[in-house]
Amino acid sequence: xxxxxxxxxxxxxxxxxxxxxxxxxxxxxxxxxxxxxxxxxxxxxxxxxxxxxxxxxxxxxxxxxxxxxxxxxxxxxxxxxxxxxxxxxxxxxxxxxxxxxxxxxxxxxxxxxxxxxxxxxxxxxxxxxx
Length: 130
Description:
Layout: H1 2-11, H2 28-45, H3 50-56, H4 59-63, E1 76-79, E2 98-101, H5 111-122
């Protein structure tokens, strides 16, 4: 699986447009903890005091330390396997995402399943938390 995913990453590295994140062995809480740790170490390296850091912390600062720092937030999360739970997937980045749940298990997820998810997503009215 790891080899297949690495090959897919390498062969699509120059493709522009859609960004697909596949999370295996990923934890959203761990990512947020890593982001905070990175933010603290970065501030220490620059000689920023705790008071200055506390005053400067905002959503954008935290976002710059996430694993997906150069990517936009997710528009659509497709949850396979029939489970209707988030499982800690990209907790920060999915604050305003739409979710699509399907019964197909990941290895068997096909193009037709993807197209169904896109059709469902296209019919929704996005409010972005409003």
